[in-house]
Amino acid sequence: MTENDYTSNTTLADIAAIMIGANSFVITTHGKPDGDALGAVLSLGRALEAIGKTVERWIIPPLPHALRGIVDEGVKLHFHGDEHAPMPTIEPDRVIVVDTGAWSQLDALRSWIEPRREKTIVIDHHLHGDDVGAKLFVDTSAAAVCEVIARLIDELGVEIDRVIAQTLFVGVASDTGWFRFSNTTAATHDLAARLMRAGADHAAIYRVTEQGERPEKLELMKRALQSLQLVAGGSAAVMTLTYEDFQQVGALPEDTERFVDLPQAVAGIETVVLISEPRKGATRMSFRSKPSATAINVNELAQRFGGGGHARAAGAKMDGPIDQVRQAVIEALEAASR
């Protein structure tokens, strides 16, 4: 499936009808889920359980430390790779994949999902993906996939209670940088207001998700900023975290969350790339750009490295020495800025 093919072949009303007619579900999302991905899994799972369905929620770790606080008591998350349940043990009527349609982000569960393509439904808001499921609904105008999930829950006829509102709000706030990013729309604010009326406590959510990090994250942040290199005439910033950095401060892969946003506080920096190596030889790249007349489309930039995402936020993964990856990224930034 090419990027141009990555368009909806169904509607939310049709997906709701399929869900109402099914009995059991496995819901999953991309590896290292962010607030939007986890919020979508949790909120849709609760909505389906509200209409009597059996649901297993599967996460490809790591799960960022701060997000563990939004999992409601009594909700069980299944983690791929857990020694007791490395793969789903039930045979669901439907598999639901949210916030991604890219095999590169589902690699850990691909061998289980791929044979179940015909009963897999993908719900996404990204620009491109693969042929993961027979049913695909993608809305690239949505700031967060949780915006789409909220509409789906309405189609299911489920009332958005306080718990659903909390998890949907996490997703919307996370993917908009707490309503700062250019993807934020009037519809985003309308939904946020509705969720607050339903009981979402925005102050408590902020405290848990944005002010509940491990001390090791601060040490890793210092190293990220110390590594900062300006390129492309100062319009782009590249930060690098090596495997040794993670080991020396005791940091986890998920501790890099939000680092890529830090250099954007400087007026002249239009594009930022964070390159990290949480495992030896396995390099991750996070791309961000500010909206402007000369803005770089970081989705296109990330695609050069086998990744993708949005025009203003994207990611990629590569195997190989981190120094070589950094040089390739710098050369790509220089070329894109000309």
Number of domains: 2
H/E series: HEHEEEHEEHHHHHEEHEEHEEH
The CATH class assignment of the largest domain is Alpha Beta
The CATH architecture of the largest domain is: Alpha-Beta Complex
Count helical runs: 11
Question: Spans with pLDDT under 50 lasting ≥5 residues?
Answer: none
Describe the strand arrangement of the main beta sheet, using strand numbers.
3-2-1-4-5-6
* Rg of Cα set: 19 Å
Q: Which word captures the global form?
A: globular
Helix proportion range: 25-40%
End-to-end separation in angstroms reads 31 Å
Computed structural class: alpha/beta
Proportion of residues in extended strands: 15-25%
Got a strand count? 12
CATH homologous superfamily grouping of the largest domain: inorganic pyrophosphatase (n-terminal core)
Quote the average pLDDT: 93
Largest sheet features: 6 strands, parallel
Give me the CATH fold name of the largest domain: inorganic pyrophosphatase (n-terminal core)
What does this structure look like?
This protein is α/β, with parallel strands linked by helices. It has two domains: 3-210, inorganic pyrophosphatase (n-terminal core); 215-336, Diaminopimelate Epimerase, Chain A, domain 1 (Roll). The protein is built from eleven helices and twelve strands. It has helices spanning 12-21, 35-50, 110-113, 145-156, 162-175, 186-197, 202-210, 215-226, 243-249, 298-303, 322-336, and strands spanning 24-29, 54-59, 77-79, 94-98, 120-124, 135-138, 229-231, 236-241, 271-279, 282-289, 308-309, 313-319. The chain has a six-stranded parallel sheet. Strands 7-8-9-10-12-11 form a six-stranded mixed sheet, sandwiched between helices. Helix 5 (162-175) runs antiparallel to helix 6 (186-197). It is globular. The mean pLDDT is 93.
